[in-house]
Amino acid sequence: MMNLPCTFDDVPCWESWLRAEIPPLLEAGKEWATHGLEVAETWDPRIVASCSVAVISAGFALLVVYFNMVLKRQHQRQRALWKKDNMRILDKVTALTMQLEERQQEVDFMKRRAREQKQSAAQSNDKDNVLMEETTQKLLDREEECRRLQATVDALQVKQKAGATSVQQLSQQLNFFKEQHNDHFCQLLEQKLETSQLRTTLSQQEGKNKELLKANDQLASQIEELQETIKTNTQKAETIIGKVSAERDERFSLLQEENDVIKTTVMNMLQQAQTKFQDDKALLKWKLQKQEAETQQLRAELRKANAVLEQLEKQQKRKSNKGGKENTGNVGSLKGLRNISFQAKAACVA
C-alpha cells in the first residue's frame, strides 16, 4: 500500500501538504508542457494525447481534493452551527422547565394555604361548638337548680298556707279561749313569731329565685350572643374560603394557560429545529452524493488515463527496444507524467 502523508480526518495536514506540493507539481507540469511542446514535433500524436490525458486527470484529481476539503470545512461549520442551535434550544427548554417547576411550586403553595385555612376554620368552629355545648350544659344545670328551688318554694308556700290555716284556727281558738285561759297568749305569740320567721325565709327564697332567674336570663343572652358570633364567624370563614378558592382557581387557570402556551412554543421550536435538521441533513446528503458521483467519475477518468498511460509505456518500451536511444526523452517525460498521475491518485484517494 502507498504511504499517505496525512490521515484521512486531518484536514489541516492535507491543506499544508497541498500548499507545499501543488506549486512544485504545477512547475513540473509547466516544464513538462514546455518540454512537450519542444519535442512535440518528434513525438507520436498518441503519446501527446496520453500526456494531455494524464495532465487533465491530474488536474481533475487536484480539483476533487480541493472540493473534498471545501465540503469538509462546510460540513464542520454546519455541525458547529447545529451544535450552537441545539445548545440554544436546550437552554430555552431548561429555562421553560424551571419556570414550569416554579409555577407548580406556587400552585402547591396556594393549595397548601387553602388547606391550612380550611383546617383553621374547622378548628375555630369546633372551639365555638365546644364553648356552646359548655354554656348549654351550664344553662341546663342552672335550670335544674331553679326547678329544685321552685320545688322548695312551692313546698314552703304549702307550709305557709298550712301555717296560715293553722294561724286562723289558732286565732279562732285564741278568741275562744281568751275568756277562759289567759295563759294561751304566750303560745299565740310564739306561733306568730314562727309565722313571721317563715315569711322572712320565704321572702329570702323568693329573692334567691329572682337572682337565679336573672342569671338564667344573662346566660340565655350570652348563648344568643355566642350563637350570633358563631354564625358570623362561619359566614366570614365561608366568604374567606370562597375568595381563596376563587383566587386559587383563577391562579391555577392562568398558570395552566401559561403552561399550555409554553408547551406549544417549546413543541413548535423543537419541530422547527427537527425540520431544519432534516432539511440540512438532506442537503448535505445530496451534496455528498453529488461529490461521490463526481469522485467516481473522476476516478473512472483517472483509471482510463492510467490505462492509456500503461499502453503508451508498453508501446514506448517496444519502440525503445527497437530504436535504441532515440526515444529516451519521451520515456523520461512518460515517467514524469506517471509520477504526477500517482500523486494525483493518492490525493484523490485521500
Produce a short descriptive summary.
The chain is mostly helical and 350 residues long. The chain has one domain (11-349).
Features:
mainly alpha, 0% strand, membrane, transmembrane, transmembrane helix
Residue share in helices? Answer: over 70%
What gap, in angstroms, lies between the N and C termini? 13 Å
User: Multimeric state of these chains?
Assistant: single chain
Record field, number of beta strands: 0
What is the tally of helical segments? 4
Which percent band covers the strand fraction? under 5%
| Whole-number tally of structural domains | 1
CA gyration radius, whole angstroms: 62 Å
Based on Cα principal axes, name the global outline: rod-shaped
Structure classification? mainly alpha
Mean pLDDT: 72
Q: Describe the main β-sheet briefly.
A: none
Low-confidence stretches: 324-331
Helix and strand succession?
HHHH
Would you give an account of this structure?
- It is a single chain.
- The protein is mostly helical and 350 residues long.
- It has one domain.
- 93% of the residues lie in helices and 0% in strands.
- It has 4 helices and no strands.
- It has helices spanning 11-39, 45-178, 184-323, 328-349.
- The chain starts with 10 loop residues before the first helix and ends with a helix.
- Mean pLDDT is 72; it is low at 324-331.
Secondary structure layout plus pairing:
Elements: H1 11-39, H2 45-178, H3 184-323, H4 328-349
